[in-house]
Amino acid sequence: MSNIPSQETLRQMVSRWLPPHRVPQRFRIHTDTTDFVRVEYDDVVILSGRPYLIRHNAKEQRFGLDDEVKFWVKRAVDLEDGSLKIMKLVFYERFMSRIGDIEFERFRSPKKEARILDLVSGHKNFMHGYSIQDEKGNLVRILDFIKGKSLAAHVENMAMDHEAYYHECFPEILGHFFECVQSIRFLHENGERHGDLRRDHILIDRETGDYRWIDFDFNYKHRENIYGFDLFGLGNILVFLAGMGDVLLPDLRREAHPCLNTLSDADLNIIFNHRVVNLKKVYPYISEPLNRTLMHFSKGANWFYENTVQLLDDLEEVKNDH
Amino acid sequence: MTEEEKIFNKNILIAVDESDNARRAVSYVGQLLGGLPGFKVTILHVVPEPEADYFPTSTQKEEWLNQYILRMDALLEDYRRLLINKGFDPKGVAVRSMLRYCPSMAACILSQRDEGEYGTIVVGRQGLSRSEEFLFGSISSKVVNHARNCTVWVVE
Fold this sequence. Notes:
The complex is a heterodimer. Chain A is α+β, with helices and mostly antiparallel strands. Helix content of chain A is 31%, strand content 20%. Chain A contains eight helices and twelve strands. In chain A, β6 (94-99) and β7 form a beta hairpin. The longest helix of chain A is centred in the middle third of the chain and has 28 residues, at 162-189. The mean pLDDT of chain A is 94. Chain B is of the alpha/beta class. Helices cover 47% and strands 21% of the residues of chain B. Chain B has helices at residues 3-7, 20-33, 58-85, 105-115, 130-136, 139-146; strands at 11-15, 40-48, 93-100, 120-124, 151-155. In chain B, α2 (20-33) packs parallel to α3 and α4 crosses α6 (139-146).
């Protein structure tokens, strides 16, 4: 306990990084983060002697739902160097997840995330950080804050029609996405799964322009194909990127889109019945190699990717075609 | 032993788990071959080494594993009796349970085939939907696709 700074020392440290009116008079100090709900705004968490000032709880933003507060994920300031961090405290959960009519078990694992952080240290397509045990042995992950918006937000906010997007923006996005798939191949080759591949789990680093995967703590109980769920996630992102968003059956019906005359069940997502995968029927200028790749994620597919190498082979052809 | 004898020998490997389809596979072999001379059956259960990530502590993992193995030992004994009751010679029915790191259960089953001289592998059909098979893979499909020098029975 001797390496816990005094209140005065903490005030001095905080005043180096925050304006005077934001410096708290007194700090609640945590060296045990087991009860993460008690770790609040303006508290200080000390890990291996290094103090972190807690700011906000993180929120999950997705699909227009109300933001869900994640009490185990905090924004924090490293008081040694003033850098902004994301602090992930230990939270175990296991639950049955459902996609379409398929149920499978998912769980969070701090150990997994810590392991992957070590593995991807210095890799430009992943978030970076490290893990430290608090005094009770909780494996806390300290992540570098990435400035930039999610790939989902980037694509959804593009103010142009699909054809212009496809010709002007998609080739560059595809190039970045190709790197993202390569980086997932790197994980798989090292026996790791990402576990939660979603378009809002890629951040576009504002400083470097790199696409970077975030959030590695989810895992799933795999069955025969250990990487199948990761591949499904990659497919969903690819279809989203090619379509400049999800192309949904209800939207096409509302527009009385002419493609409805030719769309069949085989053209829809293998799991999500309302998402169109055969985008060439909606956007005829989409290239054949791209559409063929997309169709591996459709109900009509007779063969599904078993690994990222197969997907990368096809994406290479798609890239060369653009 | 000639190549032809290797393929058509009477050693059978039944790969089982706790599912109904595994019980159906055992029952099928019992009904089909019970009472016929010369057949030897090994009932195999591969205990997939549980992922450390799944358990908050190693103690919880050990507890889970111990309970699982006890349950599976009882199940294997139940299957053994089922075959004997169908007319198999008790000396010709063996059970085997083994703990393995198993990224692919099919690969683990097939590696057992390679270690023993089994002419036939029997597995139950999981009855997965097409999308489920696409997403998570199918053990029986992979066993069928990758088995060499043996016959595979997939029991519906």
